[in-house]
Amino acid sequence: MTRHADGRSGVGRRVLGQAVPALGVLAAEPLYLLWDTAVVGRLGALDLAGLAVGALVLATVSTQLTFLSYGTTARAAQRFGAGDPAGAVREGVAATWIALGVGLALLALVQLLCDPVAAAVADGSDIAAAAAGWLRVAACGIPLILVTMAGNGWLRGVQRPRAPVAFVIAGLSLSALLCPALTHGLWGAPRLGLVGSAWANLAGQCVSGVAFLVALVRSRPDGVGRRAFLAPRWSLMAAQLRLGRDLIVRSLSFQVCFVSAGAVAARVGAEAVGAHQIAMQVWNFLSLLLDSLAIAAQTLVGAALGAGRPDAARSIGVRVTGWSAGVAVVVAVALAAGAGVVPRVFTAAPGVLSALAVPWWFLVGMVPVAGVVFALDGVLLGAADAAYLRTTTLAAALVGFLPLIWLSYGLGWGLTGIWSGLALFVVLRFCAVLTRFRGTAWQGSAIPANRTL
């Protein structure tokens, strides 16, 4: 396992080997959602609104469980780095059992509460009815969505980053083909309208989820019975759930911040909320790029710590952070240079363009800082230092962002106040992760190299 933990030889090749496939997985879903939106948009405004509400509810339910991906990557990478590939795959088995159990529970809950939840989110009974019809079908894929998350986690951990790309793209390709066919009745398919989009989503999730399950079964070590290998191991599942608890709180901190920012922007006015939405979409897109490097750091640092090589883990962390910061600086320069051109790609409304100038220059300043934050987040996640990330992210939200955002609303600071709060949130996280990385406490969060399953 030395070649995986070495912080000096071939680090660049291994980082790219992890980051490029991770970027493919991260980008595939948003690209498909754009296609799905374009297909449904041709049905009319009501169906498009129903898709927006239904997809929002589904995404809100499923994205809270990203620990199945990030937490499993960290634990599997540490097992793999410790020379225990079978133990790394067993982390995947445990994560998959959690995904199936929690996924079935969420599916039942969504089916039970589908109508009242859609009515609470939607503005109008017609939109709520359309959203509920889409959600009933699409929600059947929740267990498979979570299985896919778990599969991404353990396959990255065992240094097989290309397999998730193939599985995810296979599923989304089928969805992309079926979506117009079932929605508009093309090529002899039945014309199902908005519900056709949901069936297309479900079909693609089945393909991806089953592919990950087959890969898990085929990874069974020689000499180990299938039943024994696939049996749930409660100690592993409990450890993963403890890690997941911290990551869920961290994820909720992000959501509270960004939802609050959107809510305050909406109260400033239509032009302000339009400008805020454009800036947030640009930020989300750039996050995908930086997240791919963070995932590479997570995988390689986890393997290094699992091999008992904290110096190699630090070296990898330093190098990946430097590269992430460099990429972020290049992006920031491009944003600054294109300030008079790029925003016009999104809108021609003079009022929105004028309002967008405020968050755009905040973006230019925030991106280089975020390059460091994202990379070091990945390093600390690779060390399974989720408790520290939970606490500091929550503190950055409660102490920095939320007071400023609501002061902005009360005092009428508009987008300047909103984006000042977002910038403060990023800066506080920067200080927290940099301080942690400079010490050694984060290295003690890893699974000991000699711990057996």
UniProtKB/TrEMBL annotation:
Belongs to the multi antimicrobial extrusion (MATE) (TC 2.A.66.1) family. The lineage of its organism: Bacteria, Bacillati, Actinomycetota, Actinomycetes, Mycobacteriales. Coiled coil: none annotated. It is found in: Membrane. InterPro entries: DinF-like (IPR044644), MATE_fam (IPR002528). It holds the Pfam family MatE. It is a multi-pass membrane protein. Its main location: membrane. This is MATE family efflux transporter. Keywords: Membrane, Transmembrane, Transmembrane helix. The chain crosses the membrane at residues 51-71, 92-113, 133-155, 167-187, 199-217, 247-270, 282-308, 320-340, 360-380, 387-407, 413-435. It comes from Tsukamurella soli.
